[in-house]
Amino acid sequence: xxxxxxxxxxxxxxxxxxxxxxxxxxxxxxxxxxxxxxxxxxxxxxxxxxxxxxxxxxxxxxxxxxxxxxxxxxxxxxxxxxxxxxxxxxxxxxxxxxxxxxxxxxxxxxxxxxxxxxxxxxxxxxxxxxxxxxxxxxxxxxxxxxxxxxxxxxxxxxxxxxxxxxxxxxxxxxxxxxxxxxxxxxxxxxxxxxxxxxxxxxxxxxxxxxxxxxxxxxxxxxxxxxxxxxxxxxxxxxxxxxxxxxxxxxxxxxxxxxxxxxxxxxxxxxxxxxxxxxxxxxxxxxxxxxxxxxxxxxxxxxxxxxxxxxxxxxxxxxxxxxxxxxxxxxxxxxxxxxxxxxxxxxxxxxxxxxxxxxxxxxxxxxxxxxxxxxxxxxxxxxxxxxxxxxxxxxxxxxxxxxxxxxxxxxxxxxxxxxxxxxxxxx
Length: 426
Prior knowledge:
Elements: E1 3-9, E2 12-16, E3 20-22, E4 25-29, H1 30-38, E5 45-51, E6 57-59, E7 62-66, E8 69-71, E9 92-98, E10 100-105, E11 121-122, H2 125-129, E12 137-144, H3 151-170, E13 180-184, E14 199-208, E15 231-233, H4 235-239, H5 256-260, H6 263-273, E16 278-287, H7 291-308, E17 313-317, H8 324-337, E18 341-348, H9 355-358, E19 369-374, E20 378-381, E21 386-388, H10 392-399, E22 402-405
Parallel strand pairs: 1-9, 2-4, 6-21, 10-12, 14-16, 14-17, 17-18, 18-19
Antiparallel strand pairs: 1-13, 3-4, 5-12, 6-11, 7-10, 8-9, 15-16, 20-22
């Protein structure tokens, strides 16, 4: 299955009477966007703002960040299972507005372990230096839903509206000539000229069952993870709309933008194309809620890697808090026992900054561990010139100054391969 990314670099977004792509400038009709969102009766209103890199601006709480992408005719559909039928994602041509993002804000803080400020988009200062999203041009979407709307209905409306906006914007590029194209395909991995290359797979958690997904929460092809067993996915499916992040992304989950540009998958593709390795494929799995499910799912995932993907080595990443380390490490232990080399990425969740507290598993055979830091990083952020929030109360909280934890700065502490943090023992 071949996926072609048609890349259109974006250096500026501005409002105009018509949505169109002029070179590297994306002109956006605010009125058309408003009508698009208000097609859903879940919304009483919506506002839009534009934020540029380096601006003294803080926005939040962030619901999600999406890169504008749209499918060209003849390939797989846009966001199957959410915006349309659950057809297989990852084929054909996808037009990408690189350098742009659609960022939707929550109307209230989630009240989870991220505290009153929730996830914050920081566009300047030290946190911005550690956040890939600070270099993007953001179309900020500020939704307004009526009182009494059930929480699961509100969040479903957020998800659908944001994806519709992202697709609508990217369709402005369908008739434009891209600056470049990237072709993603694992075909040829079994060719004679690659027979001596190691087969490397990826196993990624997409949810942690320590928390129950909300009703109608679309995570994999529009469904939640109830009853989910590990499943083989083509790498292109991750990148092209099969997977969406959970509404509950506490402790460094992932944003939609992350999945669209999944760094582990993209790096494996790069090394596949330079013939450093054979990209064997991927397995999507979850962190389990009990020991029975954990043992079953870890064995299923390990068996898929060995017998379906026939891998020699595998990279594993986790989703959520401390409990998912258990599934991650047990899967890696089983794989090592099968003769398959593993590398795992973990997050230090210890608040006392001690190595002993950070250690959540200790299998001698699982000895290739990448630790990206976690709770011990924070910044004293100043008051900013511009605050964007869904209500005045949140705006005052976000204005600053305050202490911003790395896990509150969206995009900084991603646990699945996109973090710029690292842990050091000294």
